[in-house]
Amino acid sequence: MSIALFRIDDRLIHGQVVVGWGKPLNVGFIVLVDDAVRASASEQELYRMGVPPEIELVFASTAEAVAGLPVWKRDPRVGLLVAGDIDTLAALSGNSHGVARINVGGLHSRPGRSARLRYVYLSDAEAAQLKALAARGVEVTAQDVPTARAVPLKDFT
Amino acid sequence: MSEPLRGVIVSHAAVADALLAAVAAITGVQDALVGVSNDGCDTGALAERLTRAIGGQPAVLFVDLPGGSCLTSSVRLARGNASVAVVTGVNLAMLLDFVFHRDLAPGDAARRAAEAGSRAIRTPAA
Fold it and tell me: What's the confidence (pLDDT) of residue A95?
């Protein structure tokens, strides 16, 4: 198998990720890519509490994820990779290993962002970042849970 | 404790509001609990909602699931703060017990609530 879902979600590990996507995909491991969480044992412990023991949870910095992605893509289990911002997925998709699809699952209201969907708020710069990823051949859609419609990038930027 | 504890129900969607309404309907107590939903929140926004709900009082945070954004935000607020305790797996039975035992220290109230909630989970013979 490979990484079945590359997700941008500022809540990182939560119910939609572990249950909503994890169950139907039969996920065997989750890679959480976040430099701050990678550096904090207590933050890692918090996120570990939300993951059942049968799913391996891997913490990685952005640099570690760039290096580790080829290994995770060869893993026989189904994987899910989640990061909290567009920059991180842009870094992963910018290397030669490739990220074919990105799921925007949750970017919430902050100063400078405007509502694009119920669960997606973007600044103009972030919208441009996603368009740049699409221009490089990455399929970018927004979809909070598997039963929802995958919204094409053009419909929320 | 001179100031009664505040209970904050932290949930997905409208679970907190539904539990608040049920506690009020059963006990008539209106001022012991407040509800916080994580709807539309990133971690920062949820932390702000929680901080407002706690209001600087000693509090017990009743979280719906033992993992996820409601729990992570709650535990971050409670870390190093003896006036805030966290319980997961909120149910109506633990809240009903809590509203009548708000004179305890937060940690003791949390443990008592967890025990009351656990006792309510049964599989009665049909």
Answer: 66
Q: What are the tens digits of pLDDT across the range B25-63?
A: 999 999 999 999 999 898 889 999 999 999 999 999 999
Cross-strand partners of A31: A58, A81
Q: Of the candidates A11, A49, A118, which has its C-beta nearest B43's C-beta?
A: A11
SS3 A30: strand
How close is the nearest chain A Cα to the Cα of B41, in Å?
A: 6
User: Residue B27 corresponds to which tokens in the numbers above?
Assistant: 């006990």
Closest CA to B73 of A98, A21, A108: A108
Instruction: Using a CB–CB cutoff of 8 Å, tell me whether B69 touches chain A.
Output: yes
Minimum Cα–Cα distance from B74: chain A residue: A46
Secondary structure element (H or E) that encloses residue A71, with its range: helix A62-74
Closest by Cα among A113, A86, A115 to A102: A86
User: Which ipTM did the prediction report?
Assistant: 0.80
Contacts of B61 in chain A (CB under 8 A): none
Residue B37, phi then psi, degrees to nearest 5: -105, 150
- Which of A17, A46, A122 should we substitute to test contact with B (largest number of B Cβ atoms within 10 Å)? A46
* Maximum Cα interatomic distance, chain B, rounded to a whole number of Å: 46
pLDDT in tens, A112-144: 999 999 999 999 999 999 999 999 999 999 999
**How confident is the model at residue B126, as a pLDDT?**
82
- Taking the C-alpha atoms of residue A118 and residue B8, their distance in angstroms, rounded to an integer, is 25
* Whole-prediction pTM: 0.89
